[in-house]
Specification:
By secondary structure, the chain is of the alpha/beta class. About 35% of the residues lie in helices and about 15% in strands. A six-stranded mixed sheet has the order 1-3-2-4-5-6, with helices on both faces.
């Protein structure tokens, strides 16, 4: 009788052929080179018939980051202080969602202002402004903590001269539509909200901007313009501020936003006389 091999690697599991020690533990994917161009989860390779251990761990880490971004509370006091240091006037507001758990279960409450805050805004002397800017935690307070301040700093140079801007309203437990009621309370011609977007597995800190003409309760998404994925790894602050500034000017000139106002800011860049031209 032939002796059985004593090396478990040579012996295998007993259910198949012995393992070839010369083969790499992870089989690379043919699209591996694309990983340098995107944080998307592609070309992960494989270990046997499964996913490599390091990619499984990365997935778990990304999922944990996304969950933390959704549940973490915004430090609204610290944000308000930092914006005031930059020269902005700041007001505070909250939605009708009393806590984060309710906010996640009841999106409708996040779209409506707390009655006391709504009354306070209606009594402000800034009523009748051109633009009301709100900053809401949304589904990623991390996005607001990282990106709201530098984005607003970049926006200063892009807004039309003489524009009447209400104090920035820092809102907690906020959904996009909360800005409609904020803008309505302040009598604004335009309402814009900077808000944390739903986290993805490669972007737990993505910030979105929503602009609405004649904001009021009952507005819907087709009546808004959206600028998405604002962060250094996506759409940078300067580029996002330029787009928002262009949309603000065009919305005021045309008296509309949403599907009727196409983002043609790229054409504005090409038509800028300050840029070199190729004859």
């Amino acid at each position: 009788m032939n002796a059985l091999p004593t090396d478990p690697v040579q012996a295998g599991t007993g259910n198949g052929p012995a393992e070839d020690r010369s083969s790499p533990p992870v089989t690379p994917d043919a699209w591996q080179a694309w990983r340098a161009a995107t944080p998307a989860r592609l070309a992960l390779g494989r270990a046997g018939s499964g996913m490599p251990t390091d990619e499984t761990l990365r997935f778990g880490w990304a999922h944990a980051m996304a969950r933390d971004a959704i549940h973490a509370a915004l430090d609204a006091d610290a944000l308000a202080r930092s914006l005031e240091e930059d020269g902005w006037s700041v007001l505070r507001a909250r939605s009708q969602a009393p806590d984060r758990a309710t906010y996640l279960r009841r999106p409708d409450l996040g779209r409506s202002l707390d009655p006391a805050d709504a009354e306070a805004l209606r009594g402000r002397p800034e009523r009748g402004c051109d633009l009301c800017l709100a900053v809401g935690d949304g589904l990623s307070s991390l996005a607001i903590e990282r990106h709201a301040r530098p984005l607003l700093a970049a926006l200063r140079a892009q807004l039309p001269a003489g524009l009447r801007i209400a104090p920035i309203v820092v809102a907690t437990q906020a959904r996009v539509a909360l800005a409609d009621e904020v803008g309505e309370a302040l009598g604004a011609r335009l309402g814009a909200i900077l808000i944390g977007e739903r986290p993805g597995l490669s972007s737990p800190d993505s910030l979105g901007i929503y602009l609405t003409h004649e904001p009021r309760r009952g507005r819907h998404d087709a009546q808004r313009n959206c600028i998405s994925n604002v962060r250094p790894e996506g759409l940078g602050y300067e580029a996002a501020a330029f787009k928002l500034g262009w949309l603000v000017r065009e919305a005021l000139r045309r008296g509309l936003t949403g599907v009727q106002l196409k983002d043609e800011s790229d054409d504005a860049v090409l038509d800028d006389d300050r840029l070199p031209r190729i004859d």
